[in-house]
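Box S2. Input/output pair 1.
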Amino acid sequence: MEHLTFDYPAQRAVTNRAHVGVVGSGDLEVLLSPAQAMTAKVVVNTSVDGYSHIWKSVLDRFFTRYDGAAQIEINDFGATPGVVALRLAEAVEEAERGDTA
């Protein structure tokens, strides 16, 4: 089990929470909530060790488009980078719609 933390600058406040996905074979869940400061903090809990460089690459790409100040927790069970990007986009969409999780 590996625990990774990443921080990114943010430009706008996030006001809603979101929860998408499930932790299961080859999938992951994303929990998004408002941050206390104008920064985005991502905590990744993954069952697959040794891929921090891949996580960093996927998150760097995501945060070139997303500027929200959010706390994001990702609980992973071997998801591919494409699934990670999809779940992150779904969480942002849900939070921006104002759905509650």
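Box S3. Input/output pair 2.
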Amino acid sequence: MNILSIGGSDPSSGAGIQSDIKTFSNHDIYGFTVVTAITSQNTRKVTLVEPVSAKSLIAQIDSILSDFHIDAIKIGMVYNSQIIKVIHSKLRKIKVPIVVDPIIKSTTGAILLKKSALRDYKKMIVPLADVITPNKFEAKALSGISNTKKSAKKIQSMGAKCVIITGTTLSNGKISDFVLEESKEYVISGKKIPIKNHGSGCNYSASIAVSLAKGNTMYNAVKTAKDYVYQSIRNSKKIGKGVSITHKNISNGMRELSDSINHFKQIKNIYKVIPECQTNFVFAKKNPKIIKDVLGISGRLVKSGKEVVTAGEIVYGGSQHVGTAVIQVNKKFPKIRSSLNIKYNPKIIAKAKKSKFTVLSYDRSKEPKKSKQKENSSISWGISNSLNAKSPDVIYHKGDIGKEAMILIFGKNPSDVIQKVSKLTSFH
């Protein structure tokens, strides 16, 4: 997938298009950039803002749109009316999700949107937004209203489809974002880290652009972005003499799972084994104890025609059911740390047995009533009742009333799981 970031250049890579490129790369997205202004800044201050010419801006946008497929666009710093007018004229007929991140002033206090351009910004940039992500200060600057809900409604009346006002409330160590979609409103909260940082707003809006490009719901996009920003602030680096720069560590485990997910999606006819409840693919830390110790997809691997697409992001705690299965198997066989679920098919089971895989099963109809009534306990019951002295490659069940039949494939790591899946589904 490809996303275009239109915004200012930050030589410290804390914010702006450089920050967006880092976020896109962390999500396995190819990022394009169009520079609206060249800034001279570091972690302490902005010393210079030099906007590009209209001619340069037009040429940059044309060079990207004429050659590449774009799945989403993020608009950041625009600085003046001339830039605003060019962006509006070039993007008003674009049919991909557009995320607008209002950049009015920097963390260090420098003005990054001219006062004289605010009227044109509200008239020409805000209406382009499928979602706009102002913080409390930016929301008030755009709407003239301090009340969060009224401010969001005013901004929505300017033409933005969805308005997200970030950092609206802070209590009990949590910080909340207010979301106003076209037909509903809600609040999403997350942990607050008391670190003054450079880049969290860019991380947030870029992550939302990624989720929308992948076809996720706004609710899931906001949840994912909030988690991404939390991680980027928690891992922020004090590499300059001023504020910390946000940074997201991509673990080797996350990269390995991401690579294997991409491999899975490329297996011939793999869409045929995606069950009705969809597929998840997980990779646990060593000796996992809880779901938060297991990487999984926050949504699912979803069948879309004859393709499989990732709906969601790779996060710790991303899969309840497959994650629980891995934890249960890992208790007895610590080398098993990865698993994936596919549709039950007797041909796959027969091939697994023929291939000398260790194949186990359990009967969901025999599950005790007490276990059935307890939230998320069926997987634990089934897996623990199926295990024997040999480490499993495959565990399956044939379903029950309201429960889809399923196959779980286990391995030491995601690559191991992929090798088994490729072998077992090659007859399709």
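Caption for Box S3: The longest helix spans residues 218-234. Residues 161 and 182 are 6 Å apart (CA to CA).
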